Known about the structure:
Strand order of the largest sheet of chain A: 3-2-1-4-5-6
Strand content of chain A: 15-25%
CATH superfamily of the domain at 9-106 in chain A: NAD(P)-binding Rossmann-like Domain
CATH topology of the domain at 9-106 in chain A: Rossmann fold
Shape of chain A: elongated
Radius of gyration of chain A: 19 Å
Strand content of chain B: 15-25%
Largest sheet of chain A: 6 strands, parallel
Radius of gyration of chain B: 27 Å
Number of domains of chain B: 2
Structural class of chain B: alpha/beta
Distance between the termini of chain A: 59 Å
CATH superfamily of the largest domain in chain B: NAD(P)-binding Rossmann-like Domain
Shape of chain B: elongated
Order of helices and strands of chain A: EHEHEHEHEHEH
CATH topology of the largest domain in chain B: Rossmann fold
CATH class of the largest domain in chain B: Alpha Beta
Number of strands of chain B: 11
Structural class of chain A: alpha/beta
Helix content of chain A: 40-55%
Oligomer: heterodimer
Order of helices and strands of chain B: EHEHEHEHEHEHEEEEEH
Largest sheet of chain B: 6 strands, parallel
Distance between the termini of chain B: 91 Å
Number of helices of chain A: 6
Number of strands of chain A: 6
Amino acid sequence: MSANSTGARVCIMGCGRVGARLAELFYKASFVVTVIDLNADSFDRLSDAQLRDNAILGDGTDPAILDRAGIRDADIFIAVTNGDNRNIMASQVARTTFEVPHVLCRIYDVGRHEIYKRMGLNSFCPTLSGADFIFHAMVDAVAAPLVQETTNHG
Amino acid sequence: MDNFSISPPTEELYFIIGGGGQVGFFLARDLFIAGHEVVLLEKDPRRVRALEDELGEVVIRGDACEVRTLQNIGCDRADYMIAVTGDDEDNLVMCQVARVLATKSSNFRTIARVNNTANLALFKKLGISTTISLTNSILTAIESQIPSIESTQIQLPTNIEVISYVIAERSPSVGKTLDALSLPATCRVIMLRRGEQDLWKYQRVSLMPGDVVVVATPPENRAMLGDTLVAEQVNA
């Protein structure tokens, strides 16, 4: 049993791989965690019984479901369903209707990510970050022997 | 001169319609016949083929939420984005994205179909020019024909309702003045009714069981007001 020292509340919409992983990270860091998902089976990804008990089955773009998930007291709202538009809408409900102080929205589509970032939504784009990571890792891998060669002969 | 030519509209506008369902189809057809420039975007290729038989080049296969799709059809000079898919989140996003892209039109407007009535206020707040809700229209039609059963609760157009709370025998509020109770900040007590008497200066009156407190409040305060004014204390 972890002592709840922070008391901070986080609401996660979408219990896929990322959502479930986030739920466990926050839970271990003593946050009060509520996960929302449309599909009850997805809660099997949650290894902790308390997380499963707290989980809410429903559509996170619906204010009534968010309310049931305790969004009024939430310090953090994270939208990580597979639908960009669902994440975008739920994040705006969290920000505008419920005035959650910290909102993060995952948007796969680069175009939409850039537009909503411009509009002030805190958006994270795995496509950009992932491609960027792979590109730099590979460029560095190719460059490394070259650097070594230059040093050897230099 | 062609005898069958349609008289041009006073102002030719460019409409983008997102969602090729029944509403999108009839809308695209009527606006096109009226002489406007229309593009109907539909994602499903099978539905696109069916629509093409009727509408020809007006139909384009594509996702109206995608920036590149909208750029390709010249969204920058669009006058209207009309979002009529069955999903509220898609309708919201295509209107918001189109608004950012429609930089050339001086009076760009967005119209969104809203399926969940709970989203109506949100869409307005997020800058959608016009919201259309079939659900809400039907509900309004029903309400106008059936008189309200609960006479104590009046729904006002501003989302503020007037509720009467009857102070219960063992309510925690008994013996306290309304000023002393910590009621939500976003509500106003209108009056206090004791027996046949209407008390408009109620501030210093100690509450008694059976008193009726009339409050104007947004619906979200209902539970808290109920708890403070009505709820019976279990361990009294």
